[in-house]
Structure formats: C-alpha cells, structure tokens
Amino acid sequence: MEAIALGPLVFPLERLAAIAAVAVLLLAVWVLSRRMEAAQAARLDRWAWRAVILGALAGRGVHVAQHWDSFAPEPWRILAFWQGGFSAQGALVAVAAVTLLELGRRNLPPLGRPIALSLGLALATWVGVLLLKGPLYAPGPPEQVFTAIDGREISLAEREGRPAVVNLWATWCAPCRRELPMMADLADAHPGIDVIFANQREAPQTVGLFLATEGLRLSNVVLDETGVLGRHYGVLGLPTTLFLDPGGQVVERHVGEISREAFAAALGRLQELEPALAPAED
Fold first, then answer.
1. Rounded distance, CA 21 to CA 27, Å?
2. Which burial class, exposed, middle or buried, applies to 80 when counting CB atoms under 10 A from its CB (0-12, 13-18, 19+)?
3. Which residue ranges make up each domain of the chain?
4. Quick count: other Cβ atoms within 10 Å of Cβ 174?
5. Is residue 274 classed as helix, strand or coil in its secondary structure?
6. Is CB count within 10 Å lower at the N or C end of the chain?
7. For the whole model, what pTM was predicted?
8. pLDDT tens sequence across 241-260
9. Could you say which architecture CATH assigns to the domain 145-271?
10. Dist. CA 219–CA 195, nearest whole Å
C-alpha cells in the first residue's frame, strides 16, 4: 500500500503519516491543556504551535538546501509544498530545539510530562501509519499493446532491455498539468529511459487539443481510453507515476504530483538498471 483514499482525496502514506502526527499532537495538547491552569495551558499551546510551524519550515528548508541546484532556476518552487519534499531530520531537530528551550525555562512550572506525552502519541501515530506500507504492489506488465497519439504501437511487456516510466494522467487533473512540462524536460535528459505519458479515459481529440493549446511536445503519449492501465496497476488517483525496470516490472511507484527533485532521483536510480552496452567488436 502506497496511498490511502479518503473520499475524493488520495494521500501518499508518507504525507498522511506527517499530517496525522501533527493532528494527534495538537489534539493531545488541546485535551491536556483543558486540565491545566490558564497560564500553563497557554504555554503548552504555544510550544505545540511553535514546534509544528518551525518543524515544517526547518524540514522544508533543509530539503531546499540539499537540492538548491534544482531550486535555484525556479525559486518560487520553494513554496510549492504540495509537491512534497521535506527533511524529516531537519524537522525533528527543530522540534527538539523548541522543546529543549521550553523545558529549560526557569522559574516556571515544568511541562515535561504533557510535552512528552504529546510527542510520544504523535511519534507513535507517525510510525503506525508508515507501518501500513506493505510490499510494493507490482504486477507484471499488461500484454495489451497501446496506441500512441501519433499512431505508433507501444508495449510495456516487450521492453527490449529499456527501462520505462509510465505517468498516468488526464487533462482535467491540475497536478498532472503542473508536472507534465517538468517530466518532459527531464525525459529529454535521459534518452535511455522511455517516459510514457498514458492518458486515462479521454478521447484523442481532447488530448490533442490540450497538448496543442499548452504547447507541450510530449513523446510517447498513449491513449488509454478505457483505463486499462489504471485498473491493471490498481491506481487510486491521478497522477500516478510508475517506474519499470528493463523487464517491465514496477520497481517504484509515486502517487500524486511529483517534484523535480524526486523525479530526477527516481530516474537516476532507474538509469542504473539499464543493461551495460556491449563492447564494440574489433
């Protein structure tokens, strides 16, 4: 299991674990503060919000610093938190610093027990959600041959030793539209990997008009008008990106919008699976 669907929303487990941990932390603080004096309750509440806000900022900041070469040309993407990209280590260090500062305040009643209980419940929730992630659901490639928008036939079962990326998308999907130009850009930089854009359940005219209107030049645009790939791979929502080894087996899976950094890293790992070129004969 890589994601959980809650009504129309689909959450990758890593993101859901972080959201659930924050929610449990704030709920625990709210419950505990109701049994305290007003001054102590206010202190506990301030600590919790500082920990959440500074933890999020530090987690994002460390991630951006680690991938600054990627963010530098598009600094506005620092605020694109919906793409994901947080450092758990950075967030934990910030939370620890806020907590130590609060516990080190003198001449004030200690808050050690409520803080420890709140953090413990949040950590248990985070780990518990992550434990839901079982083995990667990786069925073999479908035998069906798909038709590309330019009329070519594309098979996922016969890879001829080439790894592939399959991005399931639709023109009505806003996250899909945001990530397509970035994926096309990085696809050009990895000619040894076939990046296949499999449109789900839309007519060829709709797809063609969208590509022309947006000025997108995508290679390998597959028309999956009946959603065969979505059913075959058990996709919960769009966009979903599948990374296939040279044998057509899924080795990674990303649910939701993917950032440039995550996509580039996954392409790098996939590139390592490319078969070595045979030495030229004398």
1. 10
2. middle
3. 3-130, 145-271
4. 9
5. coil
6. C
7. 0.87
8. 999 999 999 999 999 999 99
9. 3-Layer(aba) Sandwich (3.40)
10. 8
